[in-house]
Specification:
Number of helices: 11
CATH topology of the largest domain: Endonuclease I-creI
CATH superfamily of the largest domain: Homing endonucleases
Number of domains: 2
Strand content: 5-15%
Structural class: alpha+beta
Distance between the termini: 83 Å
Oligomer: single chain
Radius of gyration: 35 Å
CATH architecture of the largest domain: Roll
CATH class of the largest domain: Alpha Beta
Shape: rod-shaped
Order of helices and strands: HHEEHEEHHEEHEEHHHHH
Largest sheet: 4 strands, antiparallel
């Protein structure tokens, strides 16, 4: 079962008052029905089909005709077709497609979004892909209406055109979580939040590991450079010019070429009488580099003369 199916099934099993049901069916029929001399609704979810059938019967006092078909393209699945043949004018009057929906309260706005999501909404599986919730709509006007409703609740929704459709979508995980919470789909919310916490923790661990690897590479490169500088001093008989403390640092760097400044300082402090910190080690190696560069310049000048 996909996360979209899981969420829609939970929404379809929640209790709603009459005001909510009217807004849900308005949001649903506006975007997921063909309205002519009859109203045709095509669905793939049995639970949502029962839910919509129940609301239509309660609100309009009619029982839609149900047809079940088996679709074998790509994979075998059942398609549920609801046909409303009676009270078409009353339903058209209730859902005035020429006008934007009139939604006064937050309760009505949420219920309308809930109906729209049941009809044309999808949400990616948070376990296997990035965070993405979308409404697939036929017109730019419809997409804009849904976007304005979502942004009324500060969900940072945006709209793009994809082929012949318009997509209103949310990418921020916090916003998707807030919308699921507004739908009162508690089990789906827990599932989404558990996955989000796990992924955020995993990403943090990966970032820390990458940072640690980068630091290790930096330490190794620094160690190699310092060994080359030490070798230069030894080959040019310059070590004897250094003080005792720097000679200790050089000896321990040769012994421990891959450790960090802090680790090297700790080892020297524990194994010798020289108490030194990370900044002291850094100071010694800066001086080591200056001595090498100064000697190289002098030799170059001498050769040039």
């Amino acid at each position: 079962m996909t996360f979209t199916t899981f969420l829609k099934e939970e929404i379809s099993k929640l209790d709603n008052n009459e005001i909510e049901e009217r807004c849900i069916i308005d949001g649903f029929l506006r975007y997921n029905s063909i309205i002519s001399d009859k109203i045709t609704i095509t669905l793939e979810n049995a639970s949502v089909t029962r839910f919509i059938y129940k609301i239509i019967k309660e609100i309009f006092g009619i029982s839609p005709k149900i047809t079940v078909r088996i679709q074998k393209r790509f994979r075998v699945k059942q398609i549920y077709i609801l046909e409303i043949l009676d009270k078409i004018d009353k339903i058209k009057e209730t859902i005035n497609l020429k006008m934007n929906p009139v939604l006064d309260s937050d309760e009505e706005k949420i219920a309308f979004l809930k109906g729209a999501f049941l009809g044309v909404g999808n949400v990616s599986n948070p376990k296997t892909s990035g965070y993405h919730l979308e409404f697939i709509l036929n017109s730019q006007k419809d997409a804009k209406n849904i976007m304005q409703l979502l942004n009324y609740f500060h969900l940072n929704a945006k709209t793009i055109k994809r082929g012949y459709k318009y997509i209103t979508y949310i990418k921020m995980s916090e916003s998707i979580s807030d919308l699921i919470k507004m739908f009162r789909a508690i089990n789906s919310l827990f599932e989404f939040e558990d996955t989000r916490i796990y992924r955020d923790h995993k990403n943090m661990v990966n970032r820390l590991n990458n940072c640690e690897l980068a630091n290790q590479e930096k330490t190794i490169k620094s160690g190699i450079t310092q060994l080359e500088e030490i070798k230069y001093l030894e080959e040019n008989d310059l070590v004897s010019l250094l003080d005792d403390k720097m000679k200790i640092v050089i000896a321990y760097r040769k012994k421990y070429p891959d450790v960090s400044y802090q680790e090297l300082a700790n080892i020297i402090t524990m194994e010798t009488e020289y108490k030194v910190g990370k900044s002291g080690i850094n100071h010694h190696f800066r001086n080591l580099k200056k001595i090498k560069e100064t000697h190289e310049k002098r030799r170059a000048n001498k050769n040039g003369n």
